[in-house]
Design brief:
Blueprint lengths: L2 H24 L9 E7 L6 H8 L2 H4 L2 E7 L3 H10 L4 E7 H10 L4 E9 L6 E5 L15 E5 L2 H11 L9 E5 L4 H6 L5 E5 L2 H7 L4 E5 L1 H5 L4 E9 H6 L1 H20 L1 H11 L15 E2 L6 H13 L16
Parallel strand pairs: 1-2, 1-3, 6-7, 6-8
Antiparallel strand pairs: 3-10, 4-10, 4-11, 5-8, 5-9
Length: about 325
């Protein structure tokens, strides 16, 4: 082989190696340029902002991820799909109590990453009544119907919220699709509703609701309550570890964007939620915590609280649920 040909081959090899090196500087987790399909479940509230922003800002594409989304009415349905294998991950909004319950029963089925806490300055859950309602305190809900979103976490939150005022069975909890909650309140089907954002802001902007209490998890369950997390199926992590790592890194990048670009984040959320244009312009965004910044002590405190409340059958070491 001629010297010129050898030099040509060497030059091509150097360019190829440099190209691979440039690609990996975007994300060390990526091992191929070919798009990797990832199915992500979500619900219609702002805790799932990482998936909305990741798609709108094309962050997933940078990491070689071809994201497909599936909408669910409840978190229980979403986690069933994760465990069943029809969904790979859910970004941002899966309730920590539900994650710990699953970890209690089936360790390793879900792996959590990223976090969002409810705090006094960043409330997530609200108890709403109509502006003309005579209900002045939670105690006034005794004997009445209280609407709530679907799932076991709503049941637990209802019990913790009212138990200091009356026995939970002295009022009736009516669970429904979140999109029906404000209409149910306005029509008088229920006397109050427990909602997550963006419904609280929407009700206030339309002058159809009054806030009876805000920050329900923080006030009635635990201060600075670790509310929700991103999760992936344990199967997904085991079978596609490089893609799973890329998803975590992409999610961290979406969180950086969310926490520094509120207007663009609201615009991304609005494209995925079934509300009229402009309604979400003033929603209170949660503050997301990246995988690299998670502190597990508060999550362990929550797990111990749930165990003492008999929501968990045995004490759970949360490191197992957050082990990537």
């Amino acid at each position: 082989m001629s010297k010129k040909l050898w030099m040509g081959i060497a030059a091509v090899a150097i360019v190829a190696i440099a190209a691979v090196g440039l690609f990996k500087t975007k994300s060390e987790s990526l091992v191929t340029v070919a798009p990797q399909t990832v199915i992500i479940g979500y619900r219609t509230h702002d805790l799932y902002a990482p998936v909305f922003v990741g798609i709108e800002q094309k962050i997933f594409e940078k990491y070689g991820l071809d994201v497909k989304t599936v909408q669910f009415a409840s978190t229980n349905q979403l986690t069933d799909a994760l465990i069943g294998g029809s969904v790979d991950a859910a970004l941002g909004g899966v309730n920590i109590p539900l994650i710990l319950t699953i970890q209690d029963k089936s360790p390793g089925e879900l792996v959590a990453f990223s976090l969002v806490n409810e705090t006094p300055v960043a409330p997530l859950a609200y108890l709403l009544v109509t502006p003309s309602s005579t209900i002045a305190t939670i105690a006034d809900l005794r004997g009445k119907k209280v609407g709530a979103f679907q799932g076991s976490t709503a049941q637990y939150l209802y019990r913790k919220t009212v138990s200091s005022f009356f026995k939970p069975e002295e009022a009736e909890l009516v669970q429904m699709n979140p999109e029906l909650e404000l209409a149910a309140l306005a029509s008088g089907q229920v006397a109050a509703v427990i909602v997550l954002e963006p419904l609280a802001t929407i009700g206030q902007s339309q002058h159809t609701t009054r806030v009876l209490e805000s920050g329900l998890f923080d006030k009635f369950v635990m201060p600075n309550f670790p509310n929700a997390a991103s999760v992936m199926a344990g199967r997904f992590k085991r079978e596609r570890p490089d893609v799973a790592k890329a998803l975590v890194e992409a999610t961290d990048e979406t969180i950086d964007f969310i926490n520094s670009h509120p207007a663009e984040t609201r615009a991304a959320i609005a494209k995925f939620l079934p509300f009229e244009a402009g309604v979400l312009d003033s929603i209170r965004l949660p503050y997301f915590i990246k995988q690299t910044e998670i502190k597990l002590e508060p999550v362990q405190q929550e797990a111990d609280l749930l165990y003492n409340d008999k929501q968990l059958k045995k004490s759970v070491d949360v490191k197992g649920a957050f082990s990537l």
